[in-house]
Amino acid sequence: MTKQRLNAPLARDAMAYVLAGGRGSRLMELTDRRAKPAVYFGGMSRIIDFALSNAINSGIRRIGVATQYKAHSLIRHMQRAWNFLRPERNESFDILPASQRIDELHWYEGTADAVFQNIDIIESHAPKYMVILAGDHIYKMDYELMLQQHVNSGADVTVGCLVVPRKDASGFGIMAVDDQGVITAFVEKPKDPPAMPGNPDMALASMGIYVFDTEFLFEQLRRDADDPDSKRDFGGDIIPYIVKHGKAVAHKFTDSCIRAAEEIEEYWRDVGTLDAYFEANLDLTDVVPKLNMYDRDWRIWTDQVVSSPAKFVHDEEGRRGQAIASLISQDCIVSGATAHRSLLFTGVKMGSFSSVSEGVILPYCNIGRGARLSRVIVDSGVRIPEGLVVGEDPEVDARRFRRSEGGVCLITKSMIDRLG
């Protein structure tokens, strides 16, 4: 459901700046070769496509992406998928790897430093507003509505926020607000998160989304860069300083979340653990998914691989190519096999008599004949041996693969190689 916009769009005077340098170490071996924003999601997309698509759909046509950790696959994806923005239309797409631009000693030292080191590039585009985004969350949001609140409230910074259970809030920046939505306190990743007034079980958490007037942001970044005690971080340094010395205002995710007609909740997920990543992918297999990837009014743009349609072959009892409650991407061949409540990404091949139940199978995997996989994430390019069984004996699985607290097995090429 698209929220009502007012007046002339502010997005055309804004630049989106996506912070996409993080490893995402809680995704374990899934980020050994790629940054978290480059991890595959939803059958065809990458995690970063959600922040970038939100920016484009909101009307923002100037975008910068700061990368750092193992950025090759992320940069390659953006070059292929996001090269349609044209300078002659006052559009831009800058990929900004950590490159020791300030001196020869320092890479990006924190989220704020990742913007500070590129002030000259931002200035060349002359945006009036800056929308700072995390590149590693799954959600749909209209940033134009957040920009409107920022301007109308006269805030120095507007912080996107959502309500989360207090028991799960220690991984967020947590804030307290007054009746006008002004932030009165901001604590980054507290061990004992403060509760919302009148709701002791919930807390108000930062989404890592910030809107600034550009000139004010530059002033704060330069001030912070001169502070020898700063960790150069938005949540740890910049935002708490503004809360104390300026006006920081909270913007509720519910005010700008995009929901298709059948979506029953405002959907936002931090897919930072194997279990969270697995569950968010499987959410898409529901008859009425919590997140609608088929919404033509708010598309999630990504790299469109030129390949053949998915194919299902054989129609014999016990050897029937079929998929139930599953997402099957292009170039997949399900040959006398069964996929149930699973996602097969581009180019997956399933051999006869094999089965996948609750599986997230990343691109170009090959599942051998007779293999049985249940509650698995299979990294891209893995060849599953014939007859391999995963998901039926927890002790055996834990010895061979990475098994999460929720009983999900991550399978990578090196793990298969060790099986001999």
From TrEMBL:
InterPro entries: ADP-Glc_PPase, ADP_Glu_pyroP_CS, GlgC_bac, GlmU/GlgC-like_hexapep, NTP_transferase_dom, Nucleotide-diphossugar_trans, Trimer_LpxA-like_sf
Keyword annotations of the record: ATP-binding, Carbohydrate metabolism, Glycogen biosynthesis, Glycogen metabolism, Nucleotide-binding, Nucleotidyltransferase, Transferase
Gene3D superfamilies (UniProt xref): Hexapeptide repeat proteins (2.160.10.10), Spore Coat Polysaccharide Biosynthesis Protein SpsA, Chain A (3.90.550.10)
UniProt record similarity statement: Belongs to the bacterial/plant glucose-1-phosphate adenylyltransferase family.
HAMAP family with a match to the protein in the record: GlgC
Superkingdom field: Bacteria
Pathway, per record: Glycan biosynthesis; glycogen biosynthesis
Coiled coil spans: none
Catalytic reactions of this protein: alpha-D-glucose 1-phosphate + ATP + H(+) = ADP-alpha-D-glucose + diphosphate
Pfam families (alphabetical): Hexapep_GlmU, NTP_transferase
PANTHER family per the UniProt record, alphabetical: GLUCOSE-1-PHOSPHATE ADENYLYLTRANSFERASE (PTHR43523:SF2), GLUCOSE-1-PHOSPHATE ADENYLYLTRANSFERASE-RELATED (PTHR43523)
The protein's name: Glucose-1-phosphate adenylyltransferase
Domain Glucose-1-phosphate adenylyltransferase/Bifunctional protein GlmU-like C-terminal hexapeptide: 309-411
Enzyme class: transferase
Positions with a binding annotation for alpha-D-glucose 1-phosphate: 108, 173, 188-189, 206
Enzyme Commission no: 2.7.7.27
Function: Involved in the biosynthesis of ADP-glucose, a building block required for the elongation reactions to produce glycogen. Catalyzes the reaction between ATP and alpha-D-glucose 1-phosphate (G1P) to produce pyrophosphate and ADP-Glc.
Assembly with partners or alone: Homotetramer.
Site (Could play a key role in the communication between the regulatory and the substrate sites): 68, 107
Domain Nucleotidyl transferase: 17-285
GO molecular function: ATP binding; glucose-1-phosphate adenylyltransferase activity
GO biological process: glycogen biosynthetic process
